[in-house]
Predict the structure.
Amino acid sequence: MALRNIRNMGDECLTKVCKEVTEVNKRTEALIEDMLDTMYEANGVGLAAPQVGILKRIVVIDIGEGPIVMINPVILETSGEQTGDEGCLSVPGKAGTVTRPNYVKAKAFNENMEEYIIEGEELLARAICHECDHLDGHLYVEKVEGALKDVNYDED
Ligand code: ZN
């Protein structure tokens, strides 16, 4: 297992539009494995490649139902609304209220570059939107209603 350094807000990588992935090679496979390891180690529910300094359109998500790998994700449809607290591994110790769609349908490629469709509601919909924003250089703090709050995470 290999952990990568998570870039924090203020790092240029988090403001860039990431490049499409054209092939999955050994380096891409290693990146995806490292992203999953890094996300689990940090107790996150999602991580985008620019958060570890790689400007490629790759995200990993796990809301507790197993790992999801999304390469070149595109949101196809959204509906409804949810308002709730959101955080980001690149903005440690903070959370803020963000309104997102309650339902998202997206397409993406898996590690074998096979295209698939994913539908998510609630937390999964929120995670897909949040991670896709990273690929276009956006952080959730741009969408926060009110102020960012301090969060104390219990270490256990
Ligand atoms: Zn994030």
Notes: The domain at 12-150 is CATH 3.90.45.10 (Peptide Deformylase). Helices lie at 26-41, 122-135.
